[in-house]
Write a structure and sequence with these properties.
Elements: E1 2-7, E2 10-13, E3 18-26, E4 31-39, E5 46-52, E6 57-59, E7 67-72, E8 77-82, E9 91-99, E10 104-107, E11 111-116
Length: about 120
């Protein structure tokens, strides 16, 4: 089992910044990839950014150049630095980890990010 604990959400004005963190704990050998997804009210959950163990990253187009995903493999922790935030970034942000030989998916409980205009 893997537990993911997120932190760092909150309320910020448009143009501001927030940094999310996601710490993984439990029984696992390898975290293959970690990522951030978000879900706004009335919308489907969407991928925001992912990072592999080797540091390869992928971003949804709407956050490119504003968000940066990073990872500390020694601490099993992923981060999402969010700059130049916009009201449309308002959502619950979920951490995801893909673990082990069979790529099991684990999810955090979610953290609210609210950007006011």
């Amino acid at each position: 089992q893997v537990q993911l604990v997120e932190a760092g959400g909150g309320l910020v004005q448009a143009g501001g910044s927030l940094r999310l963190s996601c710490a993984a704990s439990g029984s696992f050998v390898t975290i293959n990839a970690m990522g951030w997804y978000r879900q706004a009210p009335g919308k489907q959950r969407e991928l925001v950014a992912t990072i592999t163990g080797g540091g390869n990253t992928n971003y949804v187009y709407s956050v490119k150049g504003r968000f940066t995903i990073s990872r500390n493999n020694a601490k099993n922790t992923a981060y999402l630095q969010m700059n130049s935030l916009k009201p449309e970034d308002t959502a619950v942000y979920y951490c995801n980890a893909v673990v082990g030989t069979f790529d099991y998916d684990y999810w955090g409980q979610g953290t609210q990010v609210t950007v006011s205009s």
